[in-house]
């Protein structure tokens, strides 16, 4: 089993979490939507697998390149 | 038979001497140093050349060059830099490969003459030059003292002129100070291996100078150069990958500025893959203007499959720049990326785009600008970095281009950025998707500006905003021929292919006027 980090592409805040821990996702599925500079920025699954953990909750601030979750596949 | 004159070597003796000198040159810095490099997984100067060029194509010049100091002659095989000519994908190139096992590949008279020689030949005969960098700077004690300086440095009045007559590609493959650093900055493409260092002087010297320990990664590591300075275009993990990247970069470029880049086979436009890509476009770009997306997916869906070669992916990220192919022909893509900073252009993006415009224009590569930007970033940080000046550099470069420029507005194009991204007469053809919006200012801000001081309530501001949004619809531009075509998303690739073909520079055989051939390499 390999684990892949889900990385935030921007500095902003977590607006909506669109997945649950334990959910099976495909590569490219939107896991959460961040808000940055008044724009909604989707964070996509880097690989197909199961959402093993989420490191952020709605409303949390998030930095560019921060790990926001882990996918196990 | 006449008796041989005393003291004159025979023909056999001369050939034996040649063989001895060649063997000494090929031994480089000796088996111990070479073995330590192999153990570290780093290639030596000659192995790099072999890996870079087509098998068996290397023709070395200056192999027997050595130090001008008699006491160093036996210790300086090839005087520390291997130079010559080869082929990459069948096309001739010139190569300079630094041999760090020989006095740190430091610069001195003989090796500088060798570099000058291959530069001269490559420039005059139309060959790209590849600089494989790893050097410790000027050689000591050769360059020390007034006489040393005068004899060795500053004697080539054109050494650091970048006249873009043939493409230059550089790799930062170890410690790069002095000549390796300079040529990395002057080159059109620079790839760096993680762990290598590019700086004015070594961390040892820097530590001495400031009396504190300087970390080489802070001084000139891959993160600094790929994310902060932008001096490096791409980052890799091994020497071999760096050499492959150079081969890939050169495949989009002509051998010299008076020809078009080589053409690759064009994909089958009627195939399922191409039609699926066309259908994807409308899904990649959300209709809701508040939703961001990665513009690089648009480029990948529009360009020939797998052809997008992004430059500086981690620098000035709000702009995406890269080489690609359309119907097999090399093209340069410049695009705003709404994923970052809502697509608002900042100083780094201006620098990155300006440099890319110069590259494409100098080597006859047409430019496609994909637009989705609310304008330039406003604020103190940008002003401290001379934002207005950088915006003007960008405009100057755009307006000096003589290669075809095609601009396509996907969603937003506001303010000065509308001009910088090819609006109006700043490109040869302007097109837009039906839902594109163009105005001087985003209605959200503009409504506040025009109602300021009038005591307007939210309802009135909302009315003003709505009226402005209506006026921003791109059909206003189409009605006055400031947008020449409104294309549906799935028609984008077909439209661009048609326009690239219409705008082939037929009278000059595809060659532009290169008005930026001498543009500075960093600014």
Describe this structure in words.
The complex is a heterodimer of chains A (73) and B (523). By secondary structure, chain A is mostly beta strands. Chain A has one domain (3-72): OB fold (Dihydrolipoamide Acetyltransferase, E2P), CATH 2.40.50.100. Chain A is built from no helices and eight strands. Chain A has strands spanning 3-7, 12-17, 24-25, 30-36, 39-44, 49-54, 61-62, 67-72. In chain A, the strands form two sheets. In chain A, strands 1-8-6-3 form a four-stranded antiparallel β-sheet, with no helix packed on it. In chain A, strands 5-4-2-7 form a four-stranded antiparallel β-sheet, with no helix packed on it. Chain A is elongated. Chain B has 523 residues and is an alpha/beta fold. Chain B has two domains: 20-250, Alpha-Beta Complex (2-enoyl-CoA Hydratase, Chain A, domain 1), CATH 3.90.226.10; 272-436 and 474-508, Alpha-Beta Complex (2-enoyl-CoA Hydratase, Chain A, domain 1), CATH 3.90.226. In chain B, 38% of the residues lie in helices and 18% in strands. Chain B is built from 20 helices and 16 strands. In chain B, the strands form two sheets. In chain B, strands 1, 2, 3, 4, 5, 6, 7 and 8 form an eight-stranded mixed β-sheet that branches. In chain B, strands 9, 10, 11, 12, 13, 14, 15 and 16 form an eight-stranded mixed β-sheet that branches. In chain B, a hairpin with a 2-residue loop joins strand 10 (319-326) and strand 11 (329-336). The longest helix of chain B is centred in the N-terminal third of the chain and has 17 residues, at 109-125. Chain B is elongated, with a radius of gyration of 27 Å. The model of chain B has no long low-confidence stretch (mean pLDDT 94). Classes of the chains: A mainly beta (73), B alpha/beta (523). At the A-B interface, strand 5 of A face loops of B.
């Amino acid at each position: 089993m390999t684990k892949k980090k889900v990385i935030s592409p921007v500095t902003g805040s977590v607006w909506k979490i669109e997945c649950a821990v334990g959910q099976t996702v495909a590569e490219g599925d939107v896991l959460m939507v961040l808000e940055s500079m008044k724009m909604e920025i989707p964070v996509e699954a880097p690989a197909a697998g199961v959402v093993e953990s989420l490191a952020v909750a709605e409303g949390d601030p998030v930095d560019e390149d921060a790990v926001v979750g882990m996918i196990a596949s | 038979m006449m008796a041989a004159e005393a003291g004159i070597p025979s023909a056999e003796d001369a050939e034996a001497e040649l063989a001895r000198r060649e063997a000494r040159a090929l031994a480089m810095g000796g088996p111990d140093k070479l073995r330590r490099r192999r153990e570290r997984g780093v290639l030596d100067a000659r192995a790099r050349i072999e890996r870079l060029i087509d098998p068996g194509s290397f023709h070395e010049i200056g192999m027997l060059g050595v130090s001008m100091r008699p006491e160093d002659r036996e210790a300086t095989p090839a005087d520390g830099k291997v130079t010559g000519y080869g082929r990459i994908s069948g096309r001739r190139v010139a190569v300079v490969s630094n041999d760090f096992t020989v006095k740190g590949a430091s610069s001195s008279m003989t090796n500088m003459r060798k570099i000058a020689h291959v530069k001269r030949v490559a420039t005059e005969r139309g060959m790209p030059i590849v600089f494989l960098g790893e050097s410790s700077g000027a050689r000591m004690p050769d360059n020390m003292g007034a006489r040393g300086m005068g004899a060795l440095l500053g004697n080539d009045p054109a050494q650091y002129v970048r006249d873009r007559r043939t493409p230059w590609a550089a790799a930062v493959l170890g410690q790069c100070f002095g000549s390796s650093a300079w040529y990395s900055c002057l080159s059109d493409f620079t790839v760096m291996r993680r762990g290598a260092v590019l700086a004015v002087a070594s961390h040892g010297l820097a530590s001495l100078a400031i009396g504190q320990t300087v970390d080489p990664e802070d001084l000139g590591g891959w993160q600094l150069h790929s994310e902060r300075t932008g001096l490096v275009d791409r980052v890799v993990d091994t020497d071999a990958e760096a050499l492959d990247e150079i081969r890939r970069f050169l495949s989009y470029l002509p051998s010299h500025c008076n020809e078009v880049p080589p053409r690759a086979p064009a994909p089958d436009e009627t195939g399922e893959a191409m039609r699926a890509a066309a259908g994807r476009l409308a899904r990649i770009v959300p209709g809701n203007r508040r939703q961001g997306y990665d513009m690089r997916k648009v480029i990948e869906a529009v360009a020939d499959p797998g052809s997008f070669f992004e430059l500086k992916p981690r620098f000035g990220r709000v702009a995406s720049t890269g080489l690609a192919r359309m119907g097999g022909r090399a093209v340069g893509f410049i695009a705003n990326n709404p994923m970052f900073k809502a697509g608002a252009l900042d100083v780094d993006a201006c620098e990155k785009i300006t440099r890319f415009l110069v590259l494409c224009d100098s080597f006859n590569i047409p430019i496609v600008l994909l637009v989705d930007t609310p304008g330039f970033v406003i604020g103190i940080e940008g002003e401290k970095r001379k934002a207005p000046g950088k915006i003007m550099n960008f405009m100057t470069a755009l307006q000096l281009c003589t290669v075809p420029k095609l601009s396509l507005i996907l969603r937003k194009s506001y303010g000065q950025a509308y001009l910088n991204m090819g609006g109006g007469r700043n490109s040869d053809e302007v097109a837009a998707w039906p839902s594109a919006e163009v105005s001087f200012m985003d209605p959200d801000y503009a409504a506040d500006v025009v109602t300021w001081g009038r005591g307007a309530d939210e309802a009135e501001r909302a009315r003003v905003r709505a009226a402005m949004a209506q006026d921003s619809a791109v059909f206003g531009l189409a009605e006055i021929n400031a947008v020449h075509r409104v294309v549906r998303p799935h028609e984008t690739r077909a439209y661009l292919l048609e326009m690239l073909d219409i705008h082939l520079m037929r009278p000059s055989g595809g060659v532009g006027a290169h008005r930026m051939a001498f543009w500075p390499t960093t600014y």
